[in-house]
Amino acid sequence: MTFATPAVLGGLVAVTMTASGAFAQDARTTADLPIAVQMYTLRDHGTLDEQFAAVQAAGITAVETVGMQDSTAEDLSAMMAEYGVEAISTHAQLDDLRADAQAVIDFNKAIGNDVITVPYLAEEARPTDAAGWTALGEELAALSETLQAEDMTLAYHNHDFEMVEFDGRTALEIMMEAAGEDVMAELDLAWVARGGLDPVEYLGRFDGRVFAIHAKDNAPEGEAEDERGFKALGEGTLDWDAILPAAEEAGAQWYIIEHDQPIDAAEVVMTGATFLTENLPDSATR
């Protein structure tokens, strides 16, 4: 016989009576799992206080920040402590790293974060050939050395434009090869699918180099146009039954909930937390 208790920190806990009459906990909570939120999802959800409150309400205890969150390191650290969350990565623009990498390093050290992720390339900054992507990878390798000297890690987050192929290899693969194995991949699988590739197969190309996946979904064609065609996790077209085990196999350390333009950001975060808590493989641990 199973008795369901109230949700604890947004994660369901089941208590099961064994044959001997003893009770055993049968499920993990959201907070037990490597689940985080990209704060960009919540950028229009009121104040920063309200955004962290939405994270807390979903039972999530880790976030990926956006730059400096329009805050000081001291204030941001205090707010994260208040809401019981930690920073596991930040999205830092490549131009900011080029201009003053030490400032980015110092701010993130102050908030307890040690992963710096390059999130996006403006159209004019995107290489147009394999040689250009190789050169960008070499630049990332140099930045990675700077971060490693400070006990930090560099990662790169893709969109669909890195799925363009040159002689059978995607731009992302060319760049990451030149960057070296210390630069990690943060694979946004909704964008991988939009780029025409199979997320499950593509994860295998980065085996051992996947810091995280951005967990979000694509709507069926023609739907959710007011949300840039994205859906809450598990409500779209991606095959998560196949993706989540593949991500684990590739060594993903974190599953980061994201939506580029949600109508109800707090609901998207809650839905994502519930979906991942119920569906992450047993091997997914923090």
From TrEMBL:
Residues 1-24 form the signal peptide. Residues 52-276 form the Xylose isomerase-like TIM barrel domain. One of its GO terms (molecular function) is isomerase activity. This is Sugar phosphate isomerase/epimerase. It comes from the Bacteria. Coiled coil: none annotated. InterPro entries: IolE/XylAMocC-like, Xyl_isomerase-like_sf, Xyl_isomerase-like_TIM-brl. Keywords: Isomerase, Signal.
